[in-house]
Amino acid sequence: MTIVFRGKKILPNIDLNKITIDGDFFMSSSNTYINSPVSGRDCHLVVKSFDRGNQQIEQTLTERATGYVYKRILYNSYAHAFPASNTSISIPWYRLYGVGQQLNSTIIFDKSATYDIGSSLNTINNLYMQNAVTVVSDENYKTEIQDIPDNVLDAWSKVNFQMYKLNAAVQEKGCDARFHFGVIAQRIKDAFDSAGLDFNDYGLLTYDKWDAIQAVEYKEATYDQDGNQTSPEVQAVEEREAGEVYMVRYDECMILEMAYQRKCLADIKAKLKS
Prior knowledge:
This protein has a 7-stranded antiparallel β-sheet with strand order 2-1-3-4-5-6-7. The protein folds into 2 domains: 2-96; 144-273, Winged helix-like DNA-binding domain superfamily/Winged helix DNA-binding domain (Arc Repressor Mutant, subunit A), CATH 1.10.10.
């Protein structure tokens, strides 16, 4: 196997743990790549260093035949060890899935209760599920367990269920946009404010805001004839207006509604008994 650095330098057969200098590497042919998620395939490896104080290195590996992309970051003590004679250190690779690519295995994150799918600024359009979502509700994972106070239920009783159309759907479909049913986040906030309750104390709502960002055009890194980098790669950034958004957790809204209905039913039964 040979590794060609931007068509200029030929490196000997080497394991990927030891490729820690910035650049594009084109790996070809039939040998096994040590510390690589693929073997015996043409690949394109991009190496970038960042946070040089901590010697953090990002490696992105693209399999040229399939377009599959794998990524990993070499952190701190691992990076300090390079180039080391001990090549037994194994840093895991994570495959990045693009549009139209199908998963063929279970998705398991390396840490529990740490990562999100999407964000308040970049939301996911739809989730299609075979089963209902299962959440952790073990008593050992909770604290300050108590009945829902009447003042919270009374505040919730002031929240009306609404019918509405989504702005994005109206822009796309016009009059054909469909009506949806639900609640309005700001009106929940107003109801809690009116009852002297701080909505931030409860998990019904989330609020996020962001600053404006100016657009940046993509620029490739440039190199001199000896393969030395003369200017870094500049990643493209889309322009973004400043904004804010309130979001709701509908499952908790439904729990409050059911608790309020149960309270009303209990009050009715008490009056009938008296």
